[in-house]
Specification:
The complex is a heterotrimer of chains A (118), B (398) and C (222).
Chain A (H helix, E strand, L loop, with lengths): L1 E5 L3 H11 L4 E6 L2 H11 L3 E4 L8 H11 L5 E5 L4 H10 L3 E4 L4 H13 L1
Parallel strand pairs in A: 1-2, 1-3, 3-4, 4-5
Helix pairs in contact in A: 2-3, 3-4
Chain B lengths: L1 E2 L1 H26 L4 E10 L13 E10 L3 E8 H11 L5 H27 L3 E3 L3 E5 L7 H4 L5 E9 L7 E7 L1 H8 L7 E2 H26 L4 E11 L3 H5 L3 E10 L4 E8 H11 L10 H26 L4 E2 L3 E6 H12 L5 E10 L7 E8 L1 H10 L12 H4 L1
Antiparallel strand pairs in B: 1-9, 2-7, 2-10, 3-4, 3-5, 3-6, 4-8, 7-8, 10-15, 11-12, 11-13, 11-14, 12-16, 15-16
Helix pairs in contact in B: 1-3, 2-3, 6-9, 8-9
Chain C lengths: L17 E3 L47 E3 L5 E4 L3 E7 L3 E7 L4 E5 L18 H14 L8 E6 L14 H16 L2 E7 L5 E6 L5 E5 L4 E3 L1
Parallel strand pairs in C: 2-4, 7-8
Antiparallel strand pairs in C: 1-3, 3-6, 4-9, 5-6, 5-7, 9-10, 10-11
The chains are: A alpha/beta (118), B alpha+beta (398), C alpha+beta (222).
């Protein structure tokens, strides 16, 4: 399974990469919402780990656009934001999962399994 | 019980004028130039008052106020100032005489401080004979104050000399009922005192969440030691934060309320934190990965801090990606304050200190500056009964 | 109670100093005097002018050179001896205006470029109205306007707000200072501005010599 990581923090991308690369293939790393959309279209990943607070375009906007063009896209928000209204906007944008930072490795893998299983 | 926020401006001015007259009196007595560095009004839990007086030995006087304003005033010199005052006023004298000189100076300065309040209220404030106080923390604070229920308003001024040889603090802690009467809530847009308290508690829980996030990420045990809401003239915000060197991040948030948040670590703490996240190769070198780790920590702490506001208010507050900063506290705050000073004359500064209670190595301060007008709206709309709804589990939403 | 002036070596002695503008109330006791850009520079509440026009102890003390006068944001001070000092200059400016012949110097610490004619706002918070206030105060203390010179530091972008429209506050402050001094015909003889570091500034009141310490460890004499 191919996973795209979208997070503006180099540090957070490296953390996620370490957690994910044991079991999955990394299908690219985006630093902002626009890059996330571009890499999604180029690499056709099975799953996106999407940060919310990012420059240029945020993760909710990017998710919205990705699920618009590919209704089968699977996106997990992976964010520090723990606001109920944001979670609702993420659902509206088409995200299927939500992980709040700081996270532990098992909770990340568990959420991925849940989302992939549908 | 209602608080008129505009009248806080008047009272802040009275406190500043009072401190100025005390500073002038002290300069006249000693021949040393002094300067009122900061005056502000804080809303704090009484138990946190002692943090004003930790980390040094203070001596001075405590007096009781009775009449138009009930409460207590404490004037304290730090140890260098104590030496200076005693050397000038009682050179070569024995300890008893030196102490007496401190007492007398404290008494004179405190009277000067209180006079303006009495004049403003057009009434008499009786002053009890001074009690000499010495020590740190609660040693210099009245037991009645630190034991009180609910949060208290504290008027505080810091007076400094350029050489640091004559610094003192004046604290005025009015009794709640007495202050509320004096604050004259006869306006339409007064805010219930309870809402200010509740907002302050929400902020504290946000700071606690931010502290937990630090612990989860770094393994360093942390605790919120001080949490207060301060009402400060906008120009005085940088001086309130101080000249110390910090490393950290600054975020701008938008929504209701919008504003700025600075998360500032002292340098050893910043290095310790980032070392726990990514091993730093060289001491004090802030490479890209180190900055990125610090920014991500700032990002996660910011969410912890402001999510609670959004959840209680059932709104959403966005924040910008963090900006890395490493400089003097005042320098970091000046561009933020510059932006805010275009629209407001006073600011509510929400200030929380996170530290380790064990060795005191780790110390981080959160300074939030919400837009004044938007904060008022937030307070008006705030439903006190929702105040504990700060946390939302995504599993319950998804 | 005995008073022993000047017994504190570092701070002892008196020289002229004044400070205004730190705090404001709804009714500032403003003097009626008009200067370019409005006055409001003196006599406002809170920070009363101290020892204006004379020394507090009535003497120009020989060891007054050791005296240090701190200036905070949105304040200025004028002195004939000792050191004027301000720290934590980020996007703010530290502006020294001095008359070397008269041996008078000032230090101003403004935060924003222009008061935009809003006289209710404290003059020393702004570059334009602050310089007006400082020039007035210097001339009143015995300086000649035609002899005045200026040095400017600060104006850094300590916090990089990526989305500022065009120039940062620091850049706009620097541009405002250059423009105002140009209008006054006051020579701007020294600048150490911009960059991303905070600064501390010291002005030797008698000579107008300026020392700037940057937080990256670089010190400059102006």
């Amino acid at each position: 399974m191919k996973v795209l990581i979208a997070d503006d923090s180099e540090f957070m991308r490296s953390l996620l990469r370490e957690i994910l690369e044991e079991e999955y293939t990394i299908a690219g790393e985006a630093e902002n919402g626009v890059e996330a959309i571009e890499l999604y279209n180029e690499n056709d990943p099975d799953l996106v780990m999407m940060d919310i607070v990012m420059p240029i375009r945020d993760g909710i906007e990017a998710t919205d656009e990705i699920t618009e063009s590919d209704p089968g896209a699977k996106v997990i928000m992976c964010t520090s934001v723990g606001q109920e209204q944001k979670m609702k906007s993420a659902i509206q944008a088409g995200a299927q999962g939500y992980i709040t930072k700081p996270f532990q490795k098992p909770s990340v893998l568990e959420e991925i399994e849940n989302v992939v299983a549908g | 019980m209602q608080i008129d926020i505009d009248s806080l401006e008047t009272y802040n001015r009275l406190a500043r004028e009072g401190a100025q007259s005390a500073a002038t009196a002290l300069s006249a007595l000693t021949g040393i130039e002094t300067h009122v560095e900061v005056t502000n009004i804080s809303l704090v839990a009484p138990s946190e008052l002692e943090y004003e007086y930790l980390g040094g030995e203070f001596s001075g006087v405590r007096i009781g106020l009775d009449g138009a304003l009930d409460g207590e005033t404490v004037l304290t010199f730090d140890s260098a100032a104590r030496e200076t005052v005693a050397d000038v006023l009682a050179p070569g004298a024995d300890e008893g005489m030196r102490r007496s000189s401190i007492e007398e100076v404290g008494n004179i300065l405190t009277s000067g401080f209180i006079d303006g309040w009495a004049d403003h209220l057009d009434a008499v404030i009786d002053i009890s004979p001074p009690t000499y106080v010495e020590g740190s923390g609660t040693d210099v604070l009245p037991a009645e104050t630190t034991g009180a229920d609910g949060q208290v308003f504290v008027f505080r001024s810091r007076v400094e000399s350029a050489s640091g040889s004559l610094d003192f603090h004046i604290l005025l802690v009015p009794e709640r009922e007495s202050l509320v009467e004096a604050l004259d809530p006869a306006t339409d847009d007064a805010i219930p005192f309870e809402k200010l308290e509740v907002f302050n508690e929400m902020t504290k829980s946000g700071a606690e969440r931010a502290a937990e996030n630090v612990t989860t990420m770094t393994g360093l045990e942390t605790d919120v030691e001080v949490n207060r809401m301060r009402f400060v003239p906008i120009d005085a915000v940088p001086a309130t934060v101080g000249d110390r060197r910090y490393v950290g991040t600054v975020m701008e948030y938008t929504g209701k309320p919008s504003g700025y948040l600075a998360i500032l670590f002292d340098r050893p703490s910043a290095e310790a934190v980032v070392d726990a996240l990514v091993p730093m190769e060289t001491d004090g070198e802030w490479g890209e990965m180190e900055q990125s780790a610090m920014k991500e920590l700032g990002n996660i702490m910011t969410s912890g801090f402001i999510d609670g506001w959004a959840n209680v208010l059932e709104s959403s507050i966005d924040h910008s990606p963090p900006t890395f900063v490493s400089d003097m506290g005042t320098s970091i705050m000046s561009p933020i304050v510059g932006r805010m000073a275009q629209t407001q004359e006073h600011a509510f500064l929400l200030d929380s200190t996170i530290q380790t209670d064990t060795d005191g190595v780790f110390r981080c301060e959160l300074f939030a500056l919400p837009d004044g007008a938007e904060l008022r709206e937030v307070l008006e709309e705030l439903l006190v009964e929702r105040a504990d709804q700060t946390r939302v589990d995504p599993d319950e939403v998804f | 109670m005995a008073r022993l002036p000047g017994s504190e070596g570092d701070d002892g002695g008196g020289s002229e100093s004044r400070r205004t503008g730190g705090n404001r109330g709804e009714s500032g006791g403003r003097s009626g005097r008009e200067s370019r850009g409005g006055d409001g520079s003196r006599g406002r509440d809170g920070d009363r002018i101290r020892g204006r026009g004379q020394n507090r102890d009535g003497s120009e003390n020989a060891n007054g050179s050791g005296k240090r006068i701190k200036v905070s944001i949105a304040e200025f001070a004028v002195a004939s001896a000792g050191t004027l000092t301000t720290s934590g200059l980020g996007s703010c400016l530290g502006i020294a205006v001095y008359d070397p012949d008269a041996g008078l110097s000032s230090l101003l610490h403004p935060m924003l470029p222009s008061r935009n004619g809003d006289d209710d706002r404290p003059p020393a918070r702004f570059v334009d109205s602050g310089i007006d206030a400082v020039v007035d105060a210097l001339c009143e203390a015995g300086a000649r306007e035609s002899a005045l010179r200026a040095k400017v530091t600060g104006g850094a972008a300590v916090v990089d707000f990526g989305d500022d429209d065009g120039a940062s506050i620091g850049d706009r402050n620097i541009a405002a200072a250059r423009e105002v001094f140009d209008e006054y015909g006051v020579d701007l003889v020294g600048e150490e501005v911009g960059g991303g570091c905070g600064r501390t500034m010291r002005v030797d009141a008698a000579t107008g010599a300026v020392t700037v310490e940057r937080t990256d460890g670089v010190d400059t004499m102006l």
